[in-house]
Structure prediction request, 180 residues.
Amino acid sequence: AVVIYNTVRVLMNTSAQAFNIVSSSIYPDFQVAVGKKDVQKTRDLFGLIFVSNFIVAITFIIFISVFGKDIYIWWTKGKILVPNDIWIYFISSILFYAMWFSKSLIFESHNKPYALTLTGILVSIISLSTTWFSIKMLGVNGIGVGILIFDLTMFLVLSKLSNSFVKFTFFQNFRVVGFK
Prediction:
């Protein structure tokens, strides 16, 4: 189970590299807008970060869905077989990771790391507990449930907490691409 978790997570984390590149290219301007208390520019730049990472996530989900198993088999020389359910859980978690990663930048730019850190610790405890129970009930597929629960919960909690800094609904994140 540990080998499957580590190797599949490494493959899925290639998407995190892209999220970092996108965020790093926009974040300096976003942080300046926050510092200047320019609410509209802050919203617009955050929307750009969020939508860009959302699009990158969808792209990675499609790519990993089509080519992921072949890449994984080539990489592991076919020595590790991963159940399809685990693929589905891990691939699904990419989208939630992209969204909570984007939300985490709000806390960084406002110099409020404690909410982010405490959320991460509490959600990790919940996720570990869920993973343990899921493995007991579902076997190795429980690993995927734990990952999905972690990323989904981080997104939901950080979305709620970040509204005190940058107030808008989930769909307002997409204003950058014309959504009203």
